[in-house]
Structures are given as C-alpha cells and as structure tokens.
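>> received
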Amino acid sequence: MKNQALYSVLSAVMLSMFCLPALASSWQICRLELRITDTVTKPYPQLQAEILNVSAKTATVICPEQGATILFTPETSDYQAVLPRRTWPKKGQVVRVDYRYLDGICKGDGKNYPCRIKHYPTLPAQVM
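>> returned
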C-alpha cells in the first residue's frame, strides 16, 4: 500500500514536470501617429497612412517602423465595429491609433498555421 501511494506521488510529480500549462498570449500594443495619405477601395475600403511616430508600450513589442506606409481599417476602441466611413479621417489628417496584435495559431482547412490578429482602434481625440 505504501509503495502504491509513493508510486502515485512520484508519477504525479514527473507528469507535472513534463506537462507545462498552456499560457495565453497577451495583446501587444504600439501607439502610432499617422498621416492619412489615401483612401483605398479595393479589395475593400481601407486607409493608407504614413507612420510619423511610434511608441511601444513594452520593450518586447514589434512595432512598424517610422516612415513606413500601412493600410488599415479604423475601428472603435472596443474592437467591436469598424468606424462608419463618413467619420474616417480625411487625406492629410494626422491621427493616433493604438495598433494591437496577438500572435497565435489559427486553424483552417484541417491545418494549423501561425497567424496574427490585428486591430487598429483610433483614440478618442482622433484629429491632432
């Protein structure tokens, strides 16, 4: 009986050493100051912008480079909806966006592949 209890405890310890818990990723955040350069309609409506300034929330975040051009669809701050097009910033305007991304594994067609979920919520004071 004692041997069986000892065996159970040792098995549990060994199992816990080899089975690490799965950790959830966290959102990585970059604050971007953007100058809107164009509105793109194909393949779907987006804004094209030049990155004027970049500020990472933590040292491990991979942010787009200053001076680069990005395409994005402006979203509400809760990521639940795209902003109505009539409220999108106009060409030449400077806006701030909290670019957020989450790296993970996506599933599709029976295969797993690495993917990045991206969000571009505009800050409440859009126009600077």
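>> The CA atoms of residues 30 and 115 lie 18 Å apart.
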